Amino acid sequence: MPESVLPPIRVLVVEDEPLAAEAHAVYVGRLAGFELVGTAGTGQDAFRRVAAAASAGVPIDLVLMDMNLPDSHGLDVSRRIRAAGLATDIIAITAVRDLENVRGAIAAGVVQYLIKPFTYSTFAAKLTSYRHFRRELNEQASVVTQSAVDHAFASLRAPADISRPKGLADSTLNAVVAYLQAQAAPVSASELMKPLGLSRVTARRYLEYLADLGLVLRAPRYGTPGRPENEYSWTNAR
Amino acid sequence: MPESVLPPIRVLVVEDEPLAAEAHAVYVGRLAGFELVGTAGTGQDAFRRVAAAASAGVPIDLVLMDMNLPDSHGLDVSRRIRAAGLATDIIAITAVRDLENVRGAIAAGVVQYLIKPFTYSTFAAKLTSYRHFRRELNEQASVVTQSAVDHAFASLRAPADISRPKGLADSTLNAVVAYLQAQAAPVSASELMKPLGLSRVTARRYLEYLADLGLVLRAPRYGTPGRPENEYSWTNAR
DNA sequence: CACGGTTGCGGTCATATTGTTCACGAGCCG
DNA sequence: CGGCTCGTGAACAATATGACCGCAACCGTG
């Protein structure tokens, strides 16, 4: 079953302060799987861009929305987007951190809430977890089970485990990546253990990590007796 | 922290089928910390009730929204509530489980997505996790931290218990469903084994499962020698 | 027209092989 | 020397496969 490479997630940065806007834009550009489609400085402009993109057939997938805009509040813009029925997800970015705003953000269908100031790693964690969510939904042809839906919703939450190789050693990781890149055909965990001298458990752990990161594709291999074996292949995309 | 100080979460059940509405109402009543404020049978009625309660100063906290309503779609009602800026959370309840609806639900700020039919324990798990979320937010003073917000979001979408029958793998199930949906003509178990690389036994097991769920139709195929072969076709129900 | 033979799928079971988890040990750093 | 990190091996759970038998409809003969 051919698994297509995912198109990048199209992002619009909404932020009135030029310096911050620039910073966010740079951050987005640094992340794999995201494509910056522009920045907007006002609520008006933001809504227009989102609506225009949707009707032009190249919808904006994600908006990084500052709450404090010169002409309106970010929540109002979010509500307008909702009211128009646009299928755009929104991550709120704000220095305001009172309860009412958080509640309001959730009620406006905001997917994540980032409090300024934040570090790049926090930012990256949020967006990565969003990418995770997108990928999981895309892997489903059609959502069939409650567990699949639960999984998708759960990956919208903020895990701190992104890009933090916990329990993984850099040297081993490098070896695995190098071997995968050299190999044209997909590789299974058992096939990895011999050439690299790793145990099955360890090999699988690294492959699984890379798959979660979206760097390798994972697909079950049928046809042999026994539980199906997952095979992993390096994605040359990007 | 004493739980009794919290006011109950006020719930509105939106469901046009009287039997289901009654069942949901009973379920809500059985859960501690929730208070049923009524049921609505149409989208119009639902919106009116939510708006009226908000302006009367006794806002509805949570709506259990059926997606299939006689006068409009649940997502449209959700968008209207959003557009009005009402701080009400929504849990979607639906038998429809395609990708588009799930995406749309998230974009409409839906907090959880329950697939009908569900057991009481699934229902209870979803509402309990929502109650957790409410409590966490209420425990905060007016100023919140990033980690507190993260925590709240996480428990908002915490996965509940699941009940995919054992012996079936999600990835295989997805592959089968995807193939069935892509195929216009009915498919037999043997015909499924080649394109997906599955054995006949496995293919049949998944097809049989989907048939039991009512997602595919099963019919014997006559005219060929040998025992008649069952053919399965995706039901485009809805 | 009746009736046994042929055919090829339906259903079940044992088997194979991996995924997962857990406790433990080896190396490293302070 | 103590604590932390990472890999290993073993035990257990999960899940597809192959083989086997029986069945239900076609297909011949009488």
What order do the helices and strands come in, and which of them pair?
2 copies of one chain form a homodimer.
Chain A: E1 9-14, H1 18-30, E2 34-40, H2 43-55, E3 62-66, H3 74-83, E4 89-94, H4 99-107, E5 110-115, H5 120-139, H6 146-154, H7 170-182, E6 187-188, H8 189-196, H9 200-213, E7 216-221, E8 229-234
Helix pairs in contact in A: 2-3, 5-6, 8-9
The first copy, chain A, binds a DNA duplex (30 and 30 nucleotides) through helix 9.
What tags apply to this protein structure?
9 helices; homodimer; Rossmann fold; 18% strand; DNA-binding; alpha/beta; Arc Repressor Mutant, subunit A; 46% helix; three-stranded antiparallel sheet; 238 residues; 8 strands; five-stranded parallel sheet
Describe, in plain words, how this protein is organized in 3D.
Two copies of one chain form a homodimer. In chain A, strand 4 (89-94), helix 4 and strand 5 (110-115) form a beta-alpha-beta unit. Chain A folds into two domains: 9-154, Rossmann fold; 170-234, Arc Repressor Mutant, subunit A (Orthogonal Bundle). Chain A has nine helices and eight strands. The model of chain A has no long low-confidence stretch (mean pLDDT 83). In chain A, the strands form two sheets. The first copy, chain A, has a five-stranded parallel beta sheet, with helices on both faces. Helix content of chain A is 46%, strand content 18%. The longest helix of chain A has 20 residues, at 120-139. Chain A has 238 residues and is α/β, with parallel strands linked by helices. Chains A and B meet through helix 3, helix 4, strand 5, helix 5 and helix 6 of A and helix 3, helix 4, strand 5, helix 6 and helix 7 of B. Chain A binds a DNA duplex (30 and 30 nucleotides) through residues 166-169, 172, 188-190, 198-202, 204-205, 220, 222-230.
